Amino acid sequence: MEALLSLAFDNIASKDTQKIRKGMRQIEGMLAQICLSNGKSKPSTPQHRRNASAINLGEQQAQSPKKLGALAEDPAFREFFRLQEGFEWNVSTRVADCLERLLGMTSNGQNDLLILSALSNLQGLLLLHPPSRTIFGREIYMNILLDLLDPYNCPAIQSSALLVLVTALLATPQNTRTFESMDGLLTVTSLFKDEETTQNVKLKLLEFLYFYLMPEAPTSPASASNSGVGLQRSPSKLASAFDRRSSVASSDDGGGAARKDIRTQEDKQHMLAKYLSNVEALVQDLQETAPFTNVAC
């Protein structure tokens, strides 16, 4: 896996768009191998060998996602998780750095496709390795996501950036505080009120605001497993990996700093009301419909 990651890192660090595309596909392929079950398929007969590529494509499409509990027992996932704990092999950091470079390149259709590929990979990485979300507690990385929400970006990029933003804030209150301190609420609400914003993006922005207004709660590896969020029946090595990253993110007071990062729903409602007039209606709707049941924010 190290050899594959090293090759992918070299590719996405290049200024050549072809190499960047190849690197993103290598990362995507690695994530697919981790997440998809190895379904048994019938061996092809000799007369079908000339169509091997088509056969392989059909087999790949037939693969189904692994169950979350089974994923925790998968050797490939264990190795991936272990490597992500070190800076050298952390894929999320490399993809985020690539996104920053792509934002500085000439905007065109080809570049937009690369940004979309990077965002898709980043979302998967943050879901597979939640401790990597802590990088978005740093302003330099949070600013990348906010830049992608600028009106000049295409709707597809704005929608994908919102999905990554939700994943980056999920169960990580300290990242939400960084988002707020960098005028993230102003960015989101300005895009929402912009007449040129498409209806599909506005819908996703509204969903994000619902998510933002959810009550916050600190999560530990054990509580995440018990609540159905995170890895079920996590092996001790994976649990200790979460513990190590959590101890780095929090201060020496045993998690007191993490608790200080939490804001109440009323606090967030008041902050959002500075930029949006109908926040009370949003909160009421959120309480009545409970769209994100069992999700820790």
UniProtKB/TrEMBL annotation:
Keywords for this protein: Cell cycle, Cell division
> A GO biological process this protein is involved in?
cell division
User: Mind telling me which InterPro entries this protein's record contains?
Assistant: ARM-type_fold (IPR016024), Cell_div_Cdc14 (IPR012535)
Write out the coiled-coil annotation as residue ranges.
none
Task: Write down the superkingdom of origin.
Answer: Eukaryota
Region feature Disordered, mapped onto this chain: 240-264
Official protein name in the record: Cell division control protein 14
